[in-house]
Amino acid sequence: MPGADKTVLITGARAPVALHLARLLDGAGRRVILADTPARPIAAASRACARYHRLPPPRFEPEAYAEAVEALVREEGIGLVIPTCEEVFHLALAWHSRAMLAQLFAPGIELLAEVHNKHAFIRLAERLGLAVPETVLLQSTADLHAVRGRSRGLVFKPVWSRFASQVLLRPTPDFLDAIAPSPAMPWVAQRFVDGDEISAYAVAREGRLKALALYRSLYRAGKGAGIFFERVEDGAARELVERIVAGTSWTGQISFDLMCEADGNVLPLECNPRAVSGLHFFRDPARFADAVLGHGPEVIPDVVAPQTVRLAMWVYGLPAALRFGGLVRFRKAMRDGQELLDWPGDPAPVKAQWPALAEIAGVAWRQRISLQVASTRDIEWNGPG
Question: What is the DSSP string of 274-304?
Fold first, then answer.
């Protein structure tokens, strides 16, 4: 990998993590090309972006997407492609079927699919000797009926999902009438684990951990993505991440939802083989690039302050504070949190939030879906076939 990555393509330019990664790699001397489906994603406004390319939506036009990426790699002389969102699955499929000239910073599609599958991931962790919460695969009404009587101690979620969408948390049995698991649309029933949730963002090369940030989200966009988060330290969580990346010989970015029980035991809940907000706790371009793309030692997070997107806090955090009487806590968070979009000498992405939000809102309005669903509708990957 070292030497082959002077021109880097970062996909998923709509995401703040793509913007952050572009700034880190640009600051380390890489030429950064960005690509995605929207017309005006926030990362395209950054001075770190040498050029932005708009691509077809991979979920709906996979062949056109693969062809466009192949042409882009050739045209820009790209040596390394780094996905940041769920387009990683579509890119892995393209790399599987085509002779691409660049390296994809991600595992093959088989391993990606295994860890993305909420049942298969738990079985993988179990094979690696990790303690796991009971997790049952549901593929029929009979499977659902078998666990109905203890639903109040379980969490139900689709095998292929994101942002905690459709999650039923310890539902009463009658709520289960709303779901119909099948082999084509399987669900899992997972033991509800009481404790403190920990999110993990990691980067690994050939099974060796190169970067790790552990954090917790104090505010979320609905039930899903964090919009205000603070760092935590936990040795058991680190060991869990190390064992999974080593046991899979992982190369690329990988993220986990973990639960720390009262006795300090840490259990894996699910895995996302992509970038998440923990990336924002790294702000040293040279050290990050040297560790992740070069031969340098593991890079340690260098940001202490909580990280947030203030616009998202106004959109999601304030209504939650008003509903649950948390205005004092909300005001403190707004004082303490560091705007993660701020970067020295690169103010444009903060203003670019507004047209980017308007574009997503337009999709949401036309499709009659939520803003959160609209934000990833065109790049989702919901399993083989």
Answer: S--GGGGG---HHHHHHHHTSSPPPBPP---
Say what the pTM is.
0.93
Q: For 329-381, what is each residue's pLDDT tens digit?
A: 889 989 999 999 999 999 999 999 999 999 999 999 999 998 888 889 999 99
The Cβ of residue 330 has, within 10 Å, a number of other Cβ atoms equal to 20
- Which residues are CB-contacts of 147 (< 8 A; sequence separation ≥ 6)? 136, 138, 154, 189
- Cβ(271)–Cβ(161) below 8 Å: no
| Cα–Cα dist 194/197, whole Å | 9
Q: What is the pLDDT of residues 301-331, one digit of tens each?
A: 999 999 998 888 898 888 888 888 889 888 9
Distances (CA, A) of 204 to 187, 253, 292: 29, 7, 7
In the numeric block, which tokens belong to residue 149?
A: 């009587």
Contact 52, 34 (CB under 8 A): yes
CB 82 within 8 A of CB 73: no
Residues 209 and 107: their CA atoms lie apart, in Å, by 15
Q: φ, ψ for residue 373 (rounded to 5)?
A: -65, -40
Over 84-101, what HEC string results? CCCHHHHHHHHHHHCCCC
Ranges of H-type helices in the chain: 16-27, 62-76, 87-97, 109-116, 118-127, 141-148, 235-248, 285-292, 310-312, 318-324, 327-336, 348-367, 371-376
Contact 205, 251 (CB under 8 A): yes
For tokens 């203890």, name the residue: 150
- CB-based burial of residue 58 (10 Å sphere; 0-12 exposed, 13-18 middle, 19+ buried)? buried
Cβ-contact 271, 121 below 8 angstroms: yes
Buried b (16+ CB within 10 A) or exposed e, 4-38: ebebbbbbbbbbbbbbbbbbbbbbbebbbbbbbbb
Round to whole Å and give the CA distance between 271 and 99: 28
Continuous H helices in 249-370:
285-292, 310-312, 318-324, 327-336, 348-367
Closest CA to 248 of 300, 208, 294: 208
